[in-house]
Design a protein that fits this description.
The complex is a heterodimer of chains A (266) and B (359). Chain A is 74% helix and 0% strand. Chain A is mostly helical. Chain A has one domain (63-257): MetI-like (MetI-like fold, Orthogonal Bundle), CATH 1.10.3720.10. The longest helix of chain A has 34 residues, at 51-84. Chain A starts with a helix and ends in a 10-residue tail after the last helix. Chain B folds into two domains: 3-230, 3-Layer(aba) Sandwich (Rossmann fold), CATH 3.40.50.300; 237-358, Nucleic acid-binding proteins (OB fold (Dihydrolipoamide Acetyltransferase, E2P), Beta Barrel), CATH 2.40.50.140. Helices cover 22% and strands 35% of the residues of chain B. Chain B has eight helices and 20 strands. In chain B, a hairpin with a 2-residue loop joins β1 and β2 (17-28). In chain B, α3 (108-121) crosses α4 (137-149). The longest helix of chain B has 18 residues, at 167-184. The chains are: A mainly alpha (266), B alpha+beta (359). At the A-B interface, α7 and α8 of A face β6 of B.
């Protein structure tokens, strides 16, 4: 009983602020305060009309998609190597690859800014953000893909090889379909992380802000707060949907490869 | 019979670890050949060097007269049944079996007919549309066999194919594999750690220890005349008694403590006749507990029953004989009217000098 009360209190503490988002997004008043003053979808309409926001969303979607593709590709290489090959210093290297998971983002952001601008002299653009996002998303992708590759019987690819396929076609015909749910799941996670990442994007953004950076800009004008709430509501809904799909696919992937679920990353 | 696979002075190192030590081996066409040994003896490594999954550090692997050193596994005339069977879980049974035909240039109807034949051969007709992950262990193995044999390889490699099956199923599949091998006439190379399996199925067996071949012989010679003590201990069960030998013109005079004296020919010394302290090996089924009415044996001795293990068809007795340090194990068939002795019973046992192997 005590435990249950504690658990409920904990969940309220975690999620109450998020539930306030849709509450105020549909509230008529421009001031974020109780009591609520009536239902409206005006703020969502406002969203649809704001051109600058559309450009920011487009930027973010492009960055998130590219990040998802590249970090999943890198994650696949690492997970496959980790699961199938044995090489000297493997444990150390795998640990090092996972390090960005715990590095403070502000440190990554500042050091990348210094390197890109001062050392390499690269102009800031969407691509600089993509590079940085790949850096922080890859460990997550490796964590997800590790499960997919480790549940895979190494004899599968050898069997395909033995039956006359080349290394590449054995990978394409056998390994790839078996780890595909993991790949999709990894892309969805990377997409979600990149989509709402703020600190790095704020430091590395060029002339075109990403969506989180744009939202931060809006916050300076109290009148636009309800619009931000509306946008936040949409983002929360999108995140929940994407992460749910990712987890479903991860579980299905494990079942397909004939393994048992050893507890996911979510 | 002509030679199909020839391994010449094959060495394999993993760093400092010497996995295969100077393997020289000829395997013939149409032969059922087994690589037998305890785990870690290199038998799977040897199979994988034939399949092409492992290269050799030194020496040569020849298949059908061609050097295989630069030939990858997908281009070798070998196919493999993996220990885990490695059935592709995302494909149906028929798609699994047809997998190797992708590059054969066969038309669709031809392929379907080949798949049907292959499934027929392993007793899985009508299973083509099933999902591969829904099969039982025995069925998976049959799919793996069909998938390998459909390509009509010169050699079929089997890596502990029966170890995942229960005892009944294993014995059933042993017989089926023998039948299948005779039907297709392809060379089978079986890796196993189960000596009974190797004895039942093989034309010839190579017993491996620590990366080298300890003995290469047909099952009967291997069982009757093991060439070393470790082979004798690995294949079946064997009692050892420390005795003394003195060489004569035709063999040796042997003093077996507790049992008696005898003369045996040189061929019962697989490592050559020695004089002095020797280890004398006796198989449990060549000893006998004497019951009333049994024929007078060539040699007999007094013994006390120390342990009785009843198997239904057989009874295994451990008996103590004066001057023999360890109890001797005797295997007796439970024939009609033959009683099972109790622990502590005094009895007489029979032995025969022709069954001794001396090291």
């Amino acid at each position: 009983m005590k435990l249950r009360v504690y658990a409920i209190a904990y969940l309220i503490f975690l999620y109450a602020p998020i539930f306030l988002l849709p509450l105020f997004a549909f509230n008529q008043g421009t001031i974020i305060a109780f009591p609520l003053s009536g239902f409206t979808t005006e703020w969502f309409g406002e969203l649809a009309k704001t051109k600058a926001l559309h450009a920011a969303v487009q930027n973010s979607l492009f960055i998130a998609l590219m990040t998802a593709v590249f970090s999943t590709l890198l994650g696949m290489c690492a997970a496959r190597a980790g699961a199938m090959a044995n090489f000297p210093g493997k444990r150390g290297i795998m640990g090092f690859v996972m390090l960005p998971l715990v590095l403070p983002e502000i440190i990554v952001a500042v050091s990348l800014l210094v390197i890109l601008r001062q050392v390499l002299g690269v102009n800031l653009s969407n691509w600089t953000i993509i590079a940085a996002h790949v850096l922080i998303c890859t460990p997550f992708c490796i964590a997800i893909l590790n499960g997919a590759f480790q549940n895979l019987d190494p004899a599968m690819e050898e069997a395909a090889l033995d039956l006359g396929e080349s290394r590449w076609s054995a990978f394409r015909l056998v390994t790839l379909p078996l780890v595909m749910p993991g790949i999709i799941s990894s892309m969805l996670i990377a997409f979600t992380i990149s989509l709402d990442e703020f600190i790095i994007a704020f430091f590395l953004t060029g002339t075109n802000p990403t969506m989180p950076v744009y939202i931060w800009g809006l916050l300076r004008f109290p009148a636009s707060l309800p619009v931000v709430m509306a946008l936040g509501t949409l983002l929360v809904a999108l995140s929940i949907i994407l992460l749910t799909i990712a987890e479903i696919l991860r579980r299905r992937g494990i079942a397909k490869a004939g393994g048992t679920d050893k507890g996911g990353f979510l | 019979m002509s030679a199909l696979i020839q391994l010449t002075a094959v060495q394999k190192y993993y760093g400092d670890y010497h996995a295969l030590r100077d393997i020289n081996l000829t395997i013939n066409e149409g032969e059922f050949f087994s690589l037998l040994g305890p785990s870690g003896c290199g038998k799977t490594t040897l199979l994988r060097t034939i399949a092409g999954f492992e290269g050799v550090s030194e020496g040569a692997v020849m298949i059908a007269g061609k050097d295989m050193s630069d030939v990858p596994p997908n281009l070798r005339p070998t196919n493999m049944v993996f220990q885990s069977y490695a059935i592709f879980p995302h494909l149906s049974v028929a798609e699994n079996v047809a997998f190797g035909l992708r590059k054969s240039g066969m038309g669709k109807p031809e392929k379907a007919a080949a798949v049907k034949d292959a499934l027929n051969m392993v007793g899985l007709d009508g299973y083509g549309d099933r999902a591969a992950h829904a099969l039982s262990g025995g069925q998976r193995q049959r799919v793996a066999l069909a998938r390998a044999l459909i390509l009509k390889p010169k050699v079929l490699l089997l890596d502990e194919p029966l170890s995942a099956l229960d005892k009944k199923m294993r014995e059933h599949m042993q017989v089926e594999l023998i039948r299948l091998q005779r039907a297709v006439g392809i060379t089978f190379i079986l890796v196993t750690h189960d000596q009974e399996e190797a004895l039942v199925m093989s034309d010839r067996i190579a017993v491996m220890f620590e990366g080298e071949i300890g003995q290469l012989a047909d099952p009967e010679s291997l069982y009757r005349r093991p060439n070393s003590r470790r082979v004798a201990e690995f294949i079946g069960k064997m009692n050892f008694i420390n005795g003394t030998a003195s060489a004569t013109d035709e063999g040796a005079k042997l003093l077996v403590p507790g049992l008696g004296k005898c003369t045996i020919p040189a061929e019962q010394f697989p490592q050559g006749v020695t004089t002095g302290d020797v280890a004398i090996g006796i198989r449990p089924e060549t000893l006998a507990v004497l019951f009333e009415g049994d024929k007078a044996p060539r040699f007999e001795a007094e013994a006390v029953v120390d342990e009785v293990v009843y198997y239904g068809d057989m009874t295994y007795y451990d008996v103590r004989v004066a001057e023999v340090e360890k109890p001797l194990t005797i295997a007796m068939k439970n024939l009609i009217g033959r009683p099972v002795l109790d622990v502590g019973a005094k009895t007489r046992i029979a032995w025969d000098e022709r069954s001794l192997v001396v090291f």
